User: What shape does this take?
Amino acid sequence: MEKMEADVVVVACGMSGLAALTQAQESLNATGGGKAIAFEKSNTSGGAANMGMALLAFESQLQKEQMYNDFTKDDAFNFFMEYVHWRSDAKLVRRWFNQSSETIQWIQDKGVEFLGVYKYFKDSHATQHMVKAPGSNTPSERSASFMNKRLTEYAQEIGAEIRFQTTVKEILTGSKGQVRGVVAVDDQGNEIECLCNAVIVATGGIGNNVDMIEQYMGWKWGVDMFTFRIPGIDGDGLNMAWKIGARKAKINMEVTYNTPGTTDIFKTLSETGRQPNLMVNLHGKRFLNEEVMDNTTFTGNSLLLQKGHQGFTIITEEIVDYYKEHGLDYITYHHGITHMDKWDEELDAYLNHKGIEASGLSMLHDGKDDQETGGENFWKFDTIDELCKVTGINQANLEKTIAEYNDMCNVDDEHPLGQRGYDWQFTKDHRFLKAINQGPYYVARHMPGGYGSLGGLEVSENMEVLNDEMEPVPGLYACGNDTATVFSDSYCFYNPGSTMSYAINSGRIAGMECVAYMDSDNFIDPES
Assistant: This one.
């Protein structure tokens, strides 16, 4: 067994672990020196954040330059705490939000550029600080990978070490319950014992562990939940921390929704199916104001209440032609579909099972290959009868729903303002009321999805891992998705960029505080 020593050990080097490693080494260098080391089971750093684009901040210099001054840190704190009904640690939320703008500068100081500040959907706040991809002046998928690459280089430049393809198997403790090191195994099967003063757990949750998803959230992955699955995010850190006395916190999912086998592959079909048109459940009934479909958390939550956790948007050739002429109702930076130029090409490819270039995200959340099953989540039908036979939607209810919906879409000549239509059921804006007339009909089936799990470890505002008595486990810290109970029951897309921002800022807090712990009166010698 190889024997090593370090001041700080970081378990995993995804976004939060990379931030923790970097900050810990900076803090050690500023207080007389020392060593921080990360053990990462894969062959690269950054983890799930390599698929990301942006992170949240409030009152940053970039926001000031874009004259976005009307949503302060105080506004953000009050808005967020009301959104989660004060079911989050207010001290941690406040610390995160207050630090967020300085973290943008911290990243810029290392040579990372940002394009600017963006919204996620029409009603969100402009909090996404979009990482600039080299050579591009538009938002780019996976641009955060360039930020992670630079942070990795910087961490190593200032003395931190990363052991890739090395998996931590156990957290070691001393006689007083204090952390004293870890045991890891490299890709050749060689064991490593690394003694240290503090351990930071940053393993990213349970997003790839279908058994734990079912155990802790009750969803069967690939059946009624279609989240991203990042290889290696299997709950390792949670299980190791729980084993040495860490308190179990509620685990939730960063719920969104997608069209399995279509989202991130047939992007024009997918985005057209995500416009605010008629959506029904298997009972053939509407169940939400489709105007909120651009808020993917709200839509995902609503889908989770339906039979089979599924909903179907229905449009006609007439609506497709409208979008071709006038453009889509909703355009997002994330998927970047601004026109319908590829509709016919993608429709032909999908319906005839032709290959098409997919985004790197597609293989991470789609549980079934539509092209092998003949297209089970997007269809073209000539009749309502055929539509219902294939999808299983209740035909009598659907026909009644369409009749009612079309009536809502009609111009009301008696309305005092001559306003087009009125959604008496869910109050959808009349601009989005488009009647479902004769076929052909295009149907997209949507399922709950998400970016990963949130929570599992209870932590303080200093990212100290707490035990069942809500007291710190000496020397044990955690950050990122393993600790993200701050999002409570519903991820807040009104403040886009939150997950990556929380990962980086919680990592930085863990890095600062574990070094401060070593010089504090609370420090317990690992060998005592």
